[in-house]
Design brief:
Length: about 200
């Protein structure tokens, strides 16, 4: 924005008003600023603007899909979580935007905030891309993830106690006299990895 102001010969605050369509800036200056912004590939972060002005009350709920597992959004597990989130948002006067992204590109979920269509993102699942989620959190994206707590985690996660769950399930089988207990699951997925830790601790 500073570069646009310098090239247009106006203040940064004038550029900000012009890009937001303020009538306090004359039409000629608004057009000049818009042309410069376009030539510099500048785009307004509508998410930050709406959050600052508190004009938007929509939260994006994103359910990743994996082409290999083909787990559908109609899966009872997903439906239960999404339904509970929708109820909680409605009770507090917020709207919900439901979307899907490729599980290999979780960072695409940030589009809804960057475009100004949502004030934050709830992502259902970490999948195999803890690093992408950390990158999203590092740039201050309002993000909450359903999943486990991982080492060096920068984002907020909410979920069950996967380690305890793995421990209790394994102990139950041991108490029944079972001695050869197999653990089945993709340990590259954070929540499954944590459950396997509980299995090993039992």
């Amino acid at each position: 924005m500073v570069d646009i102001a310098r090239l247009a010969g106006v203040s940064v605050s004038t550029v900000s008003r012009a890009l937001n369509g303020s009538e306090l800036v004359n039409a000629e200056t608004r057009q000049r600023v818009a042309d410069l912004a376009r030539s510099l590939n500048y785009s307004i972060n509508f998410g930050a603007r709406n959050l600052r002005l508190q004009e938007n009350k929509t939260v994006a709920v994103v359910v990743p899909y994996d082409a290999k597992s083909r787990q559908h959004i109609s899966d009872p597990f997903f439906l239960s979580i999404v339904g509970s989130i929708a109820d909680a948002l409605t009770d507090r006067g917020y709207d919900m935007l439901l979307s899907r992204v490729d599980a290999d590109h979780l960072d695409l979920a940030s589009h809804w905030f960057d475009s100004g269509k949502a004030i934050g993102v709830v992502l259902i699942g970490q999948w195999r891309h803890h690093d992408q989620l950390n990158e999203m959190a590092a740039r201050k994206l309002p993000l909450v993830v359903w999943g486990g707590e991982m080492p060096q985690q920068l984002y907020c996660s909410v979920g069950g106690d996967n380690v305890l769950g793995g421990t209790l399930a394994t102990r139950h089988l041991l108490q029944m006299g079972r001695q050869r207990i197999a653990f089945v699951g993709d340990a590259h997925l954070p929540e499954v990895w944590l459950r396997r830790q509980g299995y090993a601790q039992a």
